[in-house]
Amino acid sequence: MTLRTVATAGLLSLTTAASTSVAAAGDATVDEPVRPNVITIVADDLGFADTSLYGGTIDTPNIAALARAGVTFTDGYAAAPVCAPSRLGLITGRDPARWGADSNVSARQLPTDLTGPAAPGPTMARALHDVGYSTMAVGKWDLSGITTNDTEATVQNKPNLPHELGFDQYYGILAGIAQYCPENDNETYRWDPAAGRYRSDEPGQYLTDAFSDRAAGFAGDHAGKDDPFFLYLAYNAPHVPLQTRSECSLPPPAADERSRYEEMVRIVDEGVGRVLAALDAADGVVGNSATDANVRNTIVVFTSDNGPEHEWQTGDLRARKYSAFEGGVRVPFAMSWPAMIPPGTRYGEMVSALDLLPTFAAAAGAPLDLSERPGVDLVPPVLGGRPAHTSLQWRYYGDNLKGGAPLGSARLAIRSGDVKYLRDVTPTGESTEYLFDLGRDYDGDGSPDGHTEQHNEVANPQYDESRQRLIHSWQSWATHLPVNEPFEVFRPATGLPDGYTSYGGTWSRAAGAQLQVVTDTPARVMAPATYFRDSTAEADVRLSGAGAAGLVTHGSTGPAGTPGQYRLNGYRTELIAGSDQVQLSRVDDGVARIVARGKLAEPVRSGTTYRLRTVHTGSGIEVSVDGRRTLTWNDREPWAGGSAGLVATADTTFDDFTVKP
Questions:
Q1: CA nearest to 5, candidates 302, 384, 332
Q2: CA 188/CA 204 separation, integer angstroms
Q3: Among 244, 463, 549, 621, which is least packed by CB within 10 angstroms?
Q4: Pfam families per the record (predicted)?
Q5: Is residue 400 part of a domain?
């Protein structure tokens, strides 16, 4: 890999750049670190090519000034190609897929309490709050499963609310979408710490301006105080609906979409300028950025949560939001910290939104366990001219047809150096592979144009070794990823959970979050391409008649199988109505062979719910029923397929199906 990093000369000392001399006992002078303020600004669905950072057509002078004051990242990536998983990754510093948050649907119904024992440590705000930072979140939250139908009464007990994750103050929209104009019902909320609840607070102005004003007020009020501050300003612009200050009609005529979008981006840029101006003016002198301690010792980051809604917003990049192509995950990315990073720096290696939490924690002196976080402190690689990452990975289950693939398709990607590998797998098993050399000059003009992802090299023998290496690397990463589908979301057209497809039987929603199958033939429901090795799969199983039902693990389509057929490779673990045995079968090309049986305390009764669990560890398989181990078996040539699901030959109700490492 060729390092493409250009840094301005005159690098400041890491040990003294962010320090100030203070008088100590005996009039000695020592260097005492000054912890920086931190401002993170996140746009919503902002296209890579639609700012001044990379020569875009929309003039964004304030965002460009922020970048000129520090570092412009040419290869900055979001944690996911859609809103909720991306923001989850940014806030936690952890791949959203490691939470089982592979789509907007799963992220908004996140099963993990981010404050509980299963969390990998503090979130961004909690890490800074716990070392003395004043903290505020402004704008779009989208991490608590709140919808536009929720009311002030119903939002109070949702999980992972801003105040629980370390924010002293909050003002914004708790749901994932809102309208912008004063006459709209914007469903904004503010956190009232005295009352311990969220209050409905309708803005009397254009929503982006309301967010900018609140954020600027917080920055101006807290700059220069003894305690540093952390501001998380998460715009919902320029996300649809395309409403501007001058035009709020819904929807806009097609001819007006681009002009409205551009105005929304310019309004975001104005808001960035308003926040930076408040920071500059806090010391009572405007325009003294070179000597203003508030400006010099504040980290300001600007980025977007994912690619844009429309392909005309991505410039030369391929595709858009909802995909793992560059247009879906490559985003505007800039950071200033004048006390540490020289102005005019450009960094040409890949960085991720997952790097922000480690960067802020290191700057603040906040303890942070990085063992479960792939991010790094960006300051050393930027100043030292070295790569921050050897690879970045993504996993996303398509929850919108606009992504160009069927609903529920698994969209997998990894970039290592200049080579990027992608695989799309539909719910019925069709697989499409791509491999791109992002650094290759295809048209011979002396400038790499592989970033356009128009030249698929997956069939080129020259790239065979790279393809195998990236597949292995991605699978090693995905080994530890859970798949958590508690059957809470169902597709209106099929009655199936998002991301699943069925073969045989009639699958439908039962009471609560349960899934029911009525069948007199073998039936299964599967989620594809999870690529686990060691894993635990479990579900509640209740049979209603004669037959068997249970789990499919390590499943993949068999060599002779075609989409829609029942042929697969993997394992089946089944309970049998009226039998005191649980059976484990190995499935080869659709043919199941019983390889082990375990004895239960009593026969399986119809109408009784059993907790069935299959654990894969290396070549060993262990099966438990209601927490009691019933059988173990060792497979000398174990399957390590990429799907999980449920199987039944009897009418059965399933609940709380979980797959985890």
A1: 384
A2: 11
A3: 463
A4: Sulfatase
A5: no
